[in-house]
Amino acid sequence: MEKLMLFLLMCIYQWAYTQKEKDSIPYTEQNKAYDIYLKSTSKEGKWIAFFKVYDSNSDSLFIMNRLNPDKKYYRIKVLDHQWSRDKLILKYQNQTEIFDYHNGKNKILPACESIGTIEHENVLVLKTSDNVQIYDLSREEIIGRINNVINVFYVNNRIYLQIKENNKFQIIEWSEMKKNKLYSSSEQISNVVGAQVNSFLIFKKQKNKLNDIIYYNTKHQLEYKFSEVQPLQFNSATAYQRSDGRIVINAEKVKDKKSAETPEIWLTSDNNLIEKFKKSETTKFLWSPVEQNVKVMGTDKLNRVVDIGNKTYFLAFSFSELQDYTAKKVPAIVYRYNASSNQYDYIDTIRSNVNYSPDGNYLIYKHGQKWKLLDVNTMSYKYIGNLNFENAYFTDENNVYFDGPTGIWKYNSKLSKIKQVFTNNKGSCKILDFKNKSNFANYPFELSFYSKVLNELNYIFEVNDEASFTKSIFEKYADKYYQIADFTTSKMIYQKTDKAKNAYLFTEENFNKPKRIIDLSRASPKKVLFQSNANDKDQSKMKVETIKYKNREGVELKGILYYPLDVEAGKKYPMVVHVYQIQSDKINEYPLFLENSVDVGFSIRKLIEKGYFVYMPDIVFDKKGTGIAALDCVNKSIDALEYNELIDFNKMGLTGHSHGGYITNFIATHSDRFATYVSGAGNSDIVRSYFSLNEYFVSPFYWQFENGQYEMNTPFIMNKDLYFKNNPIYYVENVSKPMLLWTGKKDLNIEWGQIMEFYIGLKRNNKNATVLVYPDEGHTIISKNTAKDLHDKVLQWFGYYLKGEKKAEWMN
Q1: Is pLDDT above 60 for 114?
Q2: 252: which DSSP letter?
Q3: pTM, 2 dp
Q4: Could you give the CA distance from residue 367 to residue 456 in angstroms, rounded to a whole number?
């Protein structure tokens, strides 16, 4: 019977193979604006897949040949895709497609819940609601069907299936065209994780409780239960096996809910406020399954343990010991931890993120004005002179490379010598491709621990000249350096490389050049693979000017001035000034308009289309305080525009979001240059904010003022007058022009009460102001409909106050 069903199924598939997907682009989308996102490359790197993201959808997939870009295919409504050895598998809502991109042919299979491939066998796995079908991609036929499948686990390029038979849950492996039973249990299995050869980890979970973790040896059919050496009182866990065979387990227990009648207790001596917000407690174990030995890692005090891959040692530190919430990155007293002997040896008080070598034998981190290289095994260390190094990268031989404004440097750890291997006086160097891994998930305000590893024989890097906004791309290959992209003002973002490492994929864009995908190689000139928005007829009209000016401290600054699209000589145009901090580095971004991406109500493209100048000046802060310094920078930047007779300086609007919202609020209380203001999600009372709890960062907010974005550089208690003079709410009665405020009630960063306080201040002083309160939004707008509403209302507001357009009903 099963053979007959399989035969009938194959007949149905054979009929379905003749049904082809259309490759043509729907006419309705041809002239729409869209963004592009490179997602993946084929196994050999010669084909690419990228999504076109429209306002109406984000599931339009392009498949393109890198060697022959004219050879491309188009698919819509793609939910998932995976590359096999020589085909592309595409998952849709109602079918699965096997696409032979070399020959432009496809075959259609039924819909499935998930897809996966086993590369070495070149087979496709399709999981439906209750079965799995195995499809041979070489022979183009179904070679197996397995019923009663509950879960599918892909582990180390192998497939494990959980099936239920006779009230037993079994783990079977599909390999070499047959089913191999590996494990049986009376309890359901929630996950399978790969371990060393011939072994894996099995997680058993019932409802919301972890029942057990099993280390199973498939060769000898031996199982070792974690519950036999450690009582299980957890809700969930993750685990991995180290190279030494020991298993690190991160177990999580949901905290018991407290009675509503029981108060929370908050102490001023508590430097670990994050625990007040965490809904669970975590414990880290080190388990040796064969020896049936387990240890809880760390102590109550040294509760943060980092696995750096060293054969003997871990790192341990306390999150809260030095935490005073005055800086975003808190230093930590770090110890070397021997889990076998429970010995802790002091390493250092570390104030910067830590990079560890591939074998875990070395650490490198900034120490004052130098870099410190520490041998974890011997506890000896060496200082490396800091020649403006930005980042450090280990090699497999434990040498260290540095990048930064002085070039690229190599430190030979055996000879203790450093030398410059690349120099370029046109800008700062930054390495682009390297391996980056970490087993440590850091908390907010906590040091990061990671391993950045560089292949010193072959890597690419950029040289970035911030003064001229130009960038060039270089490749190091063997002992030579090749310039694979000339210095350009375009924004270039590294995406992917093929396995042969002889070509690299980038996206490139500029203010008058929509984003495109390019191929860079030392062996051939730059090749444009795909140009987005080719039908955007306004590209040639884009005009952007760089404006240079100085603030009162003599700091040289820049601003970006976008001209109206259809500007005419002799006419006057209103101008919208957008404020934040440094914005001039965005001059090489194409002003594309998508409603989905307008999450703060501000769109350069829409404004210049509607006949506005858009100006984005740089702002830096000084000892007079954040608001006063911002006011000075904005005034100086506008003074630098006085030569431009096209700008109507009586019709200027000021707008900003978040920190830009604070700046807008402050300038509105100290200036009469603007005809109107639009402020989104910005602080209005910095004294109140200083003494508030920021739930987004899970901490008191005073660090943001003392050592963070506000750059006040002093506590409130040491200079109250500085805070008072830079506090918008204290001058709210001086607002002289109409003001539009907006906020989301679920904003955990700038609490929505800050915006309402400013609104109440404006109301009390009989000012012309309106506030838009979005109940289900946060610091930025997530909902497409809400984003459109905010964007439309901002345009209507500027249209009325800057261009004399009809007043919208909601403004009455």
Answers
A1: yes
A2: E
A3: 0.92
A4: 25
